[in-house]
Amino acid sequence: MAQGWWSGLDRAGLPALFLVALCGAYGAIIVSILPSLVGAWISDAGLSEQAAGEVAAANVLGATLGLGAALFLVSRWPLPRIGQLGLLLAMTGDALSIWADGFIELCILRGLSGLGVGLLTGAIANWIGRHDQAARGFGMYTMLQFVLAAGYIAAVPALAAYAKGASVYLCLLVLALISFLLVPLLNLNGGDVPLREASPALRDTASESGPILKLLAVLAFGFFSVAAVGLWSYMLRYGELIGIEAGEVAHILALSALCGIPGTILVVVLGARFGRTVPLMLALAVYTAPVIVFGLSEVTASIFIGAMVVQSIAWAVVAPYFQAVQAALDRSGRLAVWGVIVVSVGAGLGPALVGFLIDGDSYVIAFAVALGVLVLAALAGVIPALAADRKET
């Protein structure tokens, strides 16, 4: 392995895990900060709400394509090269977006940025998926998404006084520069060579678990994403329907999102100490409980606030443990990348499904179907989780 400033770090240690997670945070927060970007496209670029939504879709679609490309490249390129290519594409898209003010230009540039973000995210997910402490690594990764997304949303208005509409991109570029400095860390943990040139022990783990287990592991995470992202997309509107003012609902949702941080800290502390099945299933049950309450009872403001806090904490536990199950079933890290791709697709389908099921001001059918999808996630997820725990025991 080539020598560099990173070579003195213990690849199995938590500091290396944290720094790699920080390296990937630039790509991981893109979906979380879409409201800020969409707002800038409407107010500064003069796009309609529909056009801004289509630009956002191009950004997310580009990221999904980038993830697919990363899955193809991990067998052929070292991880740092994939990460560097992704960063160059994403930074180019972000920098040129500062001067773009038309629909077509923004679609192209945000698609280019999304493609780069997907490549970087795929490289990071693959690296963490190969790690012995994957649960802790994905917990840190999720925690940084919460923290840095909140920091970004707070920094953009402050910088807007000096940079106006460019502030949404300048904040992203600062994070991108941090990622660029840290991307050589992907040389650790076998990332300095393509998977096809890696040790036989690492390559052979990909075939130890059957295809059915792998399929269930990614489908379960996808089902959860469909329900969770779908419901989250309409919580602002639902809060208004139960009598909370729009501004107050937005404040509740912003603060409740930060409550996911304790959940990720819990994952980092626990790791795989109690396996993956127990914390995953418990967190899924906790997440599902408010959906049942919403569907069966009269919801007050206090119930709504408590439900949003509980779901944010549970969500922050569920996601890393789903990824940890995938990592345990395939130590080459490729299954973890597949998981991110399926979640990306699920995140796109979820809002469309829930929106279709809302009947006027009634969310009863939407909550019922979401509950069914969450049950499917649990049923599909418990089998690979148990298999992953047995494998490591």
Strand and helix layout:
Elements lengths: L13 H15 L5 H10 L5 H25 L5 H19 L5 H28 L3 H30 L3 H16 L17 H5 L6 H23 L1 H7 L4 H13 L1 H11 L6 H20 L4 H29 L4 H24 L6 H29 L1
Helix pairs in contact: 1-5, 1-6, 1-7, 2-3, 3-5, 3-15, 4-5, 4-7, 5-15, 6-7, 6-12, 6-14, 9-14, 9-15, 9-16, 10-11, 11-14, 12-14, 13-14, 13-16, 14-15, 14-16, 15-16
Oligomer: single chain
For the sheet with most strands, the description reads: none
Radius of gyration: 20 Å
Low-pLDDT regions: none
End-to-end Cα distance, whole Å, is 31 Å
Computed structural class: mainly alpha
Q: Given the structure, what is the number of helices?
A: 16
Care to count the β-strands?
Answer: 0
Gross geometry: globular
Helix content: over 70%
- The average pLDDT is 87
The fraction of residues assigned to DSSP E strands is under 5%
Q: Secondary-structure element order, as H and E?
A: HHHHHHHHHHHHHHHH
Please name the defining characteristics of this protein.
single chain; 393 residues; mainly alpha; 16 helices; globular
